[in-house]
């Protein structure tokens, strides 16, 4: 459960200049299993997404995840909320898929054999078992995105926040990642420009100019977004 209470985010755009408002007046109570966030470039979607796991902290108001305050319980929040970036290169730090997933599992106390088995299981689930020992750089964009997702899910987060996870992918890989995200048990907050993906959500938020301008079922919210973008 994700709660935003009167949240605003302001930041200094250039040193000495007055703060700019990036988000304002956000009140949300998100309990739906699939929440999509749509909006124009620069509207505030990533800021909204990053507030959920404490990568960005509110200037005003509070963000609570299962009752924990992101400003006070950062470490607990990040164990609970997994975050997937658009660009998997921002997330993958180890030379091989096996090592990358092993790194994600470092917090779990497992003996070496259990750890190896767990790593193999995660890679197999994401279709990467045959690539366990290849260089991460040799993977396709789609495989890298799956690996980034695998690493995040290996930590067993209760909530997954994905910021445009399929934007860099071709149609085939987009479908693979979409199907995987659709299949998860976790609550997923998905920032996307893919209106077909948004249409499958239980609830859609439309962000414009740092505010939530529509919030409801997918059909109505996406209509509002299309109207605002004047694309029909
Ligand atoms: N730390 C920051 N300092 C100043 N401006 C920022 C900062 N983060 C985001 N912005 C600005 O706030 C607006 C919203 O950014 P963002 O949340 O990344 O939007 P989106 O993901 O919808 O493209 C943009 O104009 C961006 O340049
Ligand atoms: Mg963004």
UniProtKB/TrEMBL annotation:
One of its GO terms (molecular function) is ATP binding. It comes from the Bacteria. Keywords: ATP-binding, Nucleotide-binding, Transport. Pfam families: ABC_tran. GO terms for cellular component: ATP-binding cassette (ABC) transporter complex. Residues 2-231 form the ABC transporter domain. SMART domains: AAA (SM00382). PANTHER family: ENERGY-COUPLING FACTOR TRANSPORTER ATP-BINDING PROTEIN ECFA1, HEAVY METAL TRANSPORTER. Belongs to the ABC transporter superfamily. This is ABC transporter ATP-binding protein. The lineage of its organism: Bacteria, Bacillati, Actinomycetota, Actinomycetes, Micrococcales.
